[in-house]
């Protein structure tokens, strides 16, 4: 019987030249597999580290993305992160195989990178195999008695251009830009799956932070906002009536200390309930998209529109005030009481008044039709979307149905001097998923909350 879990030691090119490992249809190769563990050997990490600062942009970008995943795995207790759950669970796992006995395998050479990968798989055992597009590691694996697998052709990224081909392509693009009288606009959903015309959005479900972590984070935050030292001045009738000129009254000090005690409790309650707050904010899922002007001509009056079909609503941001979801923003410490001298200094100058007459910046995006709760349409507009500019943003969607649910979302881009508008229709799948606190979705939600 074939194993339900495949353990594959991937070589460096599996991260550089193959589609993202989470997006591979693994059952095309392993028909009954339930899970795939992509093992990362120390040698592969070293080679990716070299590529992250190389001159080849695609390899550099992919090496950096792979290292970010590996770094996230390194922070987990089992040195592993799940990058996909369905239909096949895919994990990135940092290999912790025991030291290899090179003397017992004289056919392998410890000085050769291919043999180092094979040795790591041998040391791991448990039916581990080698996964590589290159023939070298696969041949060495078979010599050592291991299974090896080659990515299917459709799993590979497009063939990289040579330096000369890239130079010619760049010159041709520059020439088209120079000769064009109209802008060339490119737009897409960032997580759009062309094969299924779908966008998948996740609402994160988190476990409560551990008690020790709650206490640690609370103490760190309170250390940044310590209790103020208050001077109540000398005791006496004058002080009891009106407070000392440079100090505060005892009643002010008592109220402040009571408020600070409540602040301490609120900080600990904040971290204890943070998983619930993140879930509430995450109910507004971010649909990322980009619009790029791949020409030498500005797009005039560029408009980016969204239409939603289904039982849900478009939102301008994750913390839309009509949702009734309070931000999970950190509690603010109480203000230190002001003495008479402080009050004098406060009002001794006038604040700077805002400039209410500033015109709109023509290169910025502004809401033309800002969505309200229940809204199905929205539009942003930029008066002068200049040559070579790339704009990335998110539109937010909240479902009124039980999860999982499916809706449709349309991205429509037009401009006064654009020959034809861009129109993209995608199926939007919204699901709940248990994630770790280190997950990118959680980081994005907390980042939005701070703004």
Order of strands, widest sheet: 8-9-17-16-11-14-13
User: Low-confidence parts lasting 5 or more residues at pLDDT below 50?
Assistant: 236-246, 321-326
The CATH architecture of the largest domain can be named as Sandwich
Could you tell me the CATH topology label of the largest domain.
Immunoglobulin-like
Average pLDDT level:
87
Count of alpha/pi helices: 12
Please describe the biggest sheet, giving its number of strands, its sense, and whether it closes into a barrel: 7 strands, mixed
- What overall geometry do the principal axes of the alpha carbons give? globular
Helical fraction: 25-40%
| Derived structural class | alpha/beta
Secondary-structure element order, as H and E? EHEHHEEHEHEHEEEHHHHEEEHEEEEEH
Distance between the termini: 53 Å
The CATH superfamily of the largest domain is known as: Immunoglobulins
Q: How many structural units, i.e. domains?
A: 3
**C-alpha Rg, in Å?**
29 Å
Number of β-strand runs: 17
Describe the structure.
By secondary structure, this protein is of the alpha/beta class. It has three domains: 5-154, Rossmann fold (3-Layer(aba) Sandwich), CATH 3.40.50.1010; 181-206 and 277-338 and 361-450, Immunoglobulins (Immunoglobulin-like), CATH 2.60.40.10; 211-274, no CATH class. The protein has twelve helices and 17 strands. The protein has helices spanning 12-16, 42-51, 57-74, 113-124, 135-143, 163-179, 211-224, 237-242, 250-272, 274-282, 340-346, 440-450, and strands spanning 5-10, 35-40, 80-84, 89-94, 129-131, 148-149, 185-189, 192-193, 198-205, 284-293, 299-309, 312-315, 365-369, 377-385, 390-399, 405-414, 422-434. The strands form three sheets. Strands 8-9-17-16-11-14-13 form a seven-stranded mixed sheet, covered by helices on one side. Strands 3-4-2-1-5-6 form a six-stranded mixed sheet, with helices on both faces. Strands 7-10-15-12 form a four-stranded antiparallel sheet. It starts with a strand and ends with a helix.
């Amino acid at each position: 019987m074939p194993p339900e879990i495949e353990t594959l030691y991937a070589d460096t090119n599996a991260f550089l030249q193959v589609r993202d490992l989470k997006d591979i249809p693994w059952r095309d190769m392993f028909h009954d597999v339930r899970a795939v563990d992509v093992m990362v050997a120390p040698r592969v990490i070293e080679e990716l580290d070299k590529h992250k600062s190389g001159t080849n942009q695609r390899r550099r970008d992919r090496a950096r993305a792979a290292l970010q995943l590996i770094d996230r795995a390194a922070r987990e207790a089992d040195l592993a992160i799940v990058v996909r759950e369905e239909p096949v669970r895919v994990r990135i796992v940092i290999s912790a195989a025991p030291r290899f006995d090179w003397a017992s395998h004289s056919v392998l050479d410890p000085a050769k990178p291919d043999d180092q990968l094979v040795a790591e798989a041998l040391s791991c055992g448990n039916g581990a195999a080698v996964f590589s597009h290159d023939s070298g590691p696969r041949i060495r694996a078979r010599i050592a008695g291991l299974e090896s697998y080659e990515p299917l052709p459709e799993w590979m990224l497009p063939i990289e251009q040579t330096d000369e081909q890239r130079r010619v392509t760049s010159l041709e693009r520059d020439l088209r830009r120079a000769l064009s009288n109209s802008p060339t606009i490119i737009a897409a959903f960032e997580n759009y799956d062309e094969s299924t015309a779908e966008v998948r959005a996740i609402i994160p479900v988190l476990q409560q932070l551990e008690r020790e972590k709650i206490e640690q984070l609370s103490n760190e935050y309170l250390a940044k906002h310590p209790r103020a030292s208050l001077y109540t001045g000398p005791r006496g009738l004058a002080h009891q009536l009106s407070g000392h000129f440079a100090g505060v009254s005892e009643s002010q000090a008592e109220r402040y200390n009571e408020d600070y005690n409540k602040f301490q409790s609120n900080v600990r309650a904040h971290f204890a309930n943070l998983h619930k707050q993140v879930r509430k904010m995450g109910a507004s899922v971010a649909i990322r998209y980009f619009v790029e002007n791949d020409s030498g001509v500005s797009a005039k009056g560029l408009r980016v529109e969204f239409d939603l079909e289904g039982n849900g609503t478009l939102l301008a941001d994750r913390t839309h005030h009509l949702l009734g979801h309070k931000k999970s923003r950190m509690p603010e410490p109480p203000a230190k009481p002001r003495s008479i001298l402080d009050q004098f200094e406060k009002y001794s100058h006038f604040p700077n008044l805002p400039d209410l007459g500033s015109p709109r910046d023509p290169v910025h995006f502004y809401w033309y039709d800002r969505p309200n709760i229940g809204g199905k349409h929205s539009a942003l507009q930029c008066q002068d979307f200049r040559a070579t500019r790339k704009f990335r943003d998110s539109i937010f969607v909240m479902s009124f149905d039980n999860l999982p649910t499916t809706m449709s979302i349309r991205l429509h881009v037009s401009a006064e001097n654009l020959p034809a508008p861009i129109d993209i229709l995608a199926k939007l799948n919204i699901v709940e998923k248990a994630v770790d606190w280190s997950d990118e979705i959680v980081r994005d939600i907390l980042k939005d909350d701070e703004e």
